[in-house]
Predict the structure.
Amino acid sequence: MILIEAYETKNYPMDRSAPHEILQHIMEASRTRQADLVGLIGSSGVGSEVVNGKRLISKAQDKALGDYFKVSPSLFI
């Protein structure tokens, strides 16, 4: 397994995704709409800004998103 990881890291490097890109991916995979997140991250305006990367995800929001999607909140930092 270590050899495969080393090969992939060397030959197929991946940039770290931005938190809002990870959120967009998880939302798409789970068929979650922005409107579904309003109660978690604030108003629809704040939700739109967070999802589109115009506003950073706060610590409270990353915990709420992690709980909602059943993933580590560190994905959104």
